[in-house]
Amino acid sequence: MGNANYPEGENIYLRPITLEDTERIVRWRNQDRVRHNFIDQALFTEESHERWMRTKVASGEAVQFIICEKASDRPVGSVYFRDIDPAGRSAEYGIFIGEADAAGRGLGSETARLAVTYARDVLKLHKLRLRVFADNAGAVKSYRNAGFVQEAHLREEIRQGDAYRDLLLMAVIFPENA
């Protein structure tokens, strides 16, 4: 079950990622359903994930959690804060629900709310930003409900295959952490 030291909501809790999660992360990230909404479309490998863990998570440049269902302790996705800038008190937010049967149940929205609170209260950030495809309506709605505000709409910003996709830049600012 959840640990009082880590974010916990009504239906989920977040636990720190470990190297033991590598196989699960690679499987999740390489699903078309998940990969389609990532800016970096490259297939994920165990080596690339282990490098991320070694260079980003271990150094504190990124903080990553596994999203777990409270009722079953089942891991269903991942959430992370990357490019953490202690001097500027900012970071970039990212999330994905890896288990298909967990998608569309509000777990991402609950995670986003927990992440905003964690960014404000634990990481003491002033600004948490994200990039999301404009056509990912469910994610955009989830982010808005968690307090993110659209700061920019970049038209035809990312090329995927033969098409271009618009990208939104969104952020939440914590004035209390100025």
Fraction of residues in helix: 25-40%
Tally of DSSP β-strands: 7
Q: Uncertain segments of ≥5 residues (pLDDT<50)?
A: none
- SSE pattern: EHHHEEEHEHEE
Total DSSP helices:
5
Q: What's the architecture, going by CATH? A: 3-Layer(aba) Sandwich
Give the radius of gyration: 16 Å
* Percentage beta strand: 25-35%
The CATH topology:
Aminopeptidase
Q: Can you give the mean pLDDT?
A: 92
- In quaternary terms, these chains amount to single chain
Structural class based on helices, strands and sheet pairing: alpha+beta
CATH superfamily: Gcn5-related N-acetyltransferase (GNAT)
Going across the major beta sheet, what is the strand order? 1-2-3-4-5-7-6
Sheet with the most strands? 7 strands, mixed
Q: Judging from the principal axes of the Cα atoms, what is the shape?
A: globular
In words, what does this structure look like?
This protein is of the alpha+beta class and 178 residues long. The chain has one domain (12-177): Aminopeptidase, CATH 3.40.630. 27% of the residues lie in helices and 34% in strands. It has 5 helices and 7 strands, in the order E-H-H-H-E-E-E-H-E-H-E-E. The protein has helices at 22-29, 32-35, 46-57, 107-121, 137-145; strands at residues 12-16, 63-69, 75-85, 90-97, 127-133, 149-160, 163-173. Strands 1-2-3-4-5-7-6 form a 7-stranded mixed β-sheet, with helices on both faces. Helix 4 (107-121) packs across helix 5 (137-145). The radius of gyration is 16 Å and the shape is globular. The chain starts with 11 loop residues before the first strand and ends in a 5-residue tail after the last strand. The relative contact order is 0.15.
